Amino acid sequence: xxxxxxxxxxxxxxxxxxxxxxxxxxxxxxxxxxxxxxxxxxxxxxxxxxxxxxxxxxxxxxxxxxxxxxxxxxxxxxxxxxxxxxxxxxxxxxxxxxxxxxxxxxxxxxxxxxxxxxxxxxxxxxxxxxxxxxxxxxxxxxxxxxxxxxxxxxxxxxxxxxxxxxxxxxxxxxxxxxxxxxxxxxxxxxxxxxxxxxxxxxxxxxxxxxxxxxxxxxxxxxxxxxxxxxxxxxxxxxxxxxxxxxxxxxxxxxxxxxxxxxxxxxxxxxxxxxxxxxxxxxxxxxxxxxxxxxxxxxxxxxxxxxxxxxxxxxxxxxxxxxxxxxxxxxxxxxxxxxxxxxxxxxxxxxxxxxxxxxxxxxxxxxxxxxxxxxxxxxxxxxxxxxxxxxxxxxxxxxxxxxxxxxxxxxxxxxxxxxxxxxxxxxxxxxxxxxxxxxxxxxxxxxxxxxxxxxxxxxxxxxxxxxxxxxxxxxxxxxxxxxxxx
Length: 485
Known about the structure:
By secondary structure, the chain is α/β, with parallel strands linked by helices. It has 19 helices and 19 strands. The protein has a 15-stranded mixed β-sheet with strand order 4-3-2-5-6-8-1-9-18-16-15-10-12-13-19, with helices on both faces. The protein has a two-stranded parallel sheet with strand order 7-14. Strands 11-17 form a two-stranded parallel ribbon. Helix 1 runs antiparallel to helix 2 and helix 5 runs antiparallel to helix 7. The longest helix has 23 residues.
């Protein structure tokens, strides 16, 4: 038998083993298996290497450890049970009755408690957000817990790091958690200077033996953005710590994003989300009672009238809580659905939900960027848009780069967080979203959306007719890999 024949048979056997592993061990969904089947067969050997690095699922050991490190408090579980009983009995205000079904769904589906009395400020760009964040960091007295997918060693990154170092030297407890892939270009010595000042750092799914090209969990990124200051002020949304997120990149300018600052009871759930990941990365088992005694969960008063549910999701969970909550939102809409997302790659369930809502008379407007940061993903986005335009769903291209991740339905609720409208965010990444309930707050965000519309061009069928044959081919080809994007 020739060397070539042996090689072909070996590649075939390896591919079969990979496919069987996906089916019986990792239990991937059929459309994901089909996409990987194409990669493995059209890119022999290379496809296997790609799958080994970014495609294989989380190990049983990793999932078990992530579950083990989640904070547990009986008082919180009891509070959730009480809320379920309260909502089921409908013993709530008329305002809350409007979104009772979504609140109850989130309680039952992800144990996400409904927390009232929050004040929420919205930031529409990085410069405003970073200015407010630096002021809050400088006022910190007890603790700073900070988690970012990207924390760059550039101008804005050094500004924030200098403040963290300063506060650590002052005796403030500073904990910084960063994602290994998101911070691939950031030198590790940049973070270690915080340790020298008395702070702590942790890396989510770190590189194998320190080699940057070897990370067998690279496909599973901690895409969250969380800051909790003194247990009283919280930040989350889409804006990372990097210059281009401040709109300082000419190629992707203007950069439109959405981030929020929360003061109120919901900050406790942001704190829990942070410590769940921190405890896993540091392999520590400090209990909820320990953290309360250490001052990380202070008593909070009445700061506003916005209700909030914080939901996290990730590949370690048996379901997809954020995606399922968004599905519930879409199917609950009676009047309007407004979506802003940098990437629009829905799966079949999302496609069906949007079509059902549109056929039910709901006004659906979806906004994407006109300047893509990832052309491969943008081609897939355009292919889905082309298919949905005939349904009457309206698509708009923002004049710049749109990185906001927000969904508004009717006058009921707005979701703002780190989660994009694609399979990567729904199924592969560790994400966080805040579901915010208040008519005035929702109206405020509706106005932001309408202002953004004035900076958009509507996508018509003629847009696709102008495309070169190569663009049309690439959109169809890339769509084959949509479940992996």
